[in-house]
Backbone:
């Protein structure tokens, strides 16, 4: 099976330098058995299928360049799978800047650089230019900051000290083009 679409929600944590995220992967066809995904430094907390039933998974040993293969063991025909996970503070695709490193000097800044195979450190997926995905994404950020993404912006809502930015990418793109930034942007 191939991943064709991603529904991604992430909460940016500047203090821990992590993203707490949920990724729902839509498959090109219903599938049963093992599904392999690429990861690097991700802590996978849970996985469930489109019926809400738990999916067992194996996170294989880390390889120096490729990261760790994540094998989902799908016990029944599944069209989508949802994973809850956390990125590592040293995720290879994420650059965390302290306020002193920014032009304004008052707010932190985060940006992603997923080329060539670093998307796997942000979201578990089939991280190869051969695969193309569409996506819906939301980022929850401190309300004083803005999120930008390489996709069409569909809205921003604020609730207390956080804001949620939303985007949609209807054209299938390679995973290395998955890009975003969070900071004091105008």
Residues:
């Amino acid at each position: 099976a191939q991943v064709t679409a991603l529904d991604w929600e992430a909460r940016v944590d500047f203090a821990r330098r992590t993203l707490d995220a949920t990724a729902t992967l839509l498959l090109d066809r219903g599938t049963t058995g093992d599904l392999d995904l690429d990861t690097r430094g991700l802590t996978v907390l849970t996985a469930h299928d489109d019926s809400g039933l738990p999916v067992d998974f194996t996170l294989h040993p880390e390889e120096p360049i490729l990261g760790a293969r994540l094998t989902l063991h799908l016990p029944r025909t599944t069209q989508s799978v949802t994973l809850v996970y956390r990125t590592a503070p040293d995720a290879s695709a994420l650059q965390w800047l302290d306020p002193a490193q920014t032009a304004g000097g008052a707010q932190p800044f985060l940006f992603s650089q997923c080329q060539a195979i670093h998307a796997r450190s942000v979201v578990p997926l089939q991280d190869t230019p051969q695969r193309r995905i569409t996506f819906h994404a939301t980022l929850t950020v401190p309300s004083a900051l803005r999120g930008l993404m390489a996709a069409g912006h569909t809205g921003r809502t604020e609730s207390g000290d956080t804001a949620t930015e939303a985007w949609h990418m209807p054209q299938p793109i390679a995973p290395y083009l998955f890009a975003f930034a969070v900071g004091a942007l105008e």
Remarks:
- The chain has a mean pLDDT of 97.
